[in-house]
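This is your field. Pick holes in the following sequence-structure pair:
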Amino acid sequence: MDNNMQAVVDQITEIITIYGVDVVGALAILIIGWMAAGWVRGMVDRGLGKVPNMDSTLRPFLANLVRWIILAFVIVAVLNQFGVETTSMIAVLGAAGLAIGLALQGTLSNVAAGVMLLVLRPFKVGDFISAGGLSGTVVEIGLFTSELKTGDGIYIMAPNSQIWNTTITNFARNPTRRIDILVGIAYDDSIDDAQKALQDLMEGNALVLKDPAPMTMVMELADSSVNINIRCWVSTSDYWNALWALNKGAKAAVEAAGCSIPFPQRDVHLFNEGND
């Protein structure tokens, strides 16, 4: 029994002696490589930030790409530490590539979608978008996911494929946006007076662009009101401030012109059928 135990101890000691240095070396390479990848990523990100006219959308993507490339070399170095031939490893990876691709097709599709988002540029960092049932300001476009921030400050991380494989609405891309506000007046009110008051309201607002010129038009003869639409163009950055100001001013303008905004109403006629 003692001889068997001694043989086991000797065998374990031999394994530790042979492979212990390799294990320690591999761990050292892995830890140092991981730290170096993070340090280089930060350095690349800061360096790109100093480049004139460098797009803020590309900065995190390129920095993360550099990090993943370094980690790939670190893994190869760790395997070499254990005596794994690089050429053999590449052959094995090539043979297993199809299986890995099928198993990770969702992840790989996110990478492909991220590349397409960066190449075709339907939006950039800072744009407010709506895509894949999500809405928010773009914070970052990564290799696998994109980060958004909603209007009420909620953080969203969405897979790139979810955004890419659907219709993308970019509210900030064009320099100008159109505002349409429907204002109802009573049938007894003067349409001309209401239109003039609303036209003066738009022309007197400094946020409203002169070209295209603001305009009013009668849009609908509704059940309870005559609906007048006010239409104007503003800079995209001024959209919400202009919309709120015009909504507030429209009520005051039509009332100052002697018009009123009626409540929905319906005439009901009751008939009593007498019995013979």
The radius of gyration is 34 Å. Helices lie at 2-49, 58-81, 86-103, 105-120, 160-164, 191-203, 239-256. Residues 2-103 form a domain with the Helix Hairpins fold (CATH 1.10.287.1260). The mean pLDDT is 82.
